[in-house]
Design brief:
It comes from Saccharomonospora marina XMU15. It holds the Pfam family DUF3040. InterPro entries: DUF3040. This is DUF3040 domain-containing protein. Keywords: Membrane, Transmembrane, Transmembrane helix. There is one protein chain. The protein is an all-alpha fold. The chain folds into two domains: 32 residues, no CATH class; 61 residues. The chain has four helices and no strands. Helix 3 runs antiparallel to helix 4. The protein is elongated. It starts with a helix and ends in a 10-residue tail after the last helix. The C terminus is likely disordered.
């Protein structure tokens, strides 16, 4: 949580931006999400499918290496999904408080 002084400083910076460069302040305030690239979306979904396939194949063949590698890939894929979600979140929902 921000202190009273920190909030005042942030408000002062915001007012300075609005007076100095209103277009930049408007663009930062809107927080428009970046365009989703079809290639990156397909890469994330492909990584999900490959990781699930490795886990299932490892479980069927009882190969611990495949299960472990599939689990690591699932963790990486989850991180990619989470970071992509937070990039597209509008700034009004990402507060500094």
């Amino acid at each position: 949580m921000l202190s009273h002084h920190e909030r005042q400083e942030l408000e002062r910076i915001q007012q300075w931006f609005e007076l100095d460069d209103p277009q930049l302040a408007r663009a930062l305030g809107q927080g428009s999400p970046p365009r989703t690239n079809l290639r990156s979306r397909l890469a994330r979904l492909g990584m999900d499918a490959l990781a699930i396939g490795l886990v299932v194949l490892g479980a069927v063949t009882l190969n611990f290496g495949l299960i472990f590698f599939g689990a690591v890939m699932l963790a990486v894929a989850a991180c990619l999904h989470v970071t992509h979600f937070s990039d597209g979140m509008p700034t009004r929902y990402r507060r500094l408080e």
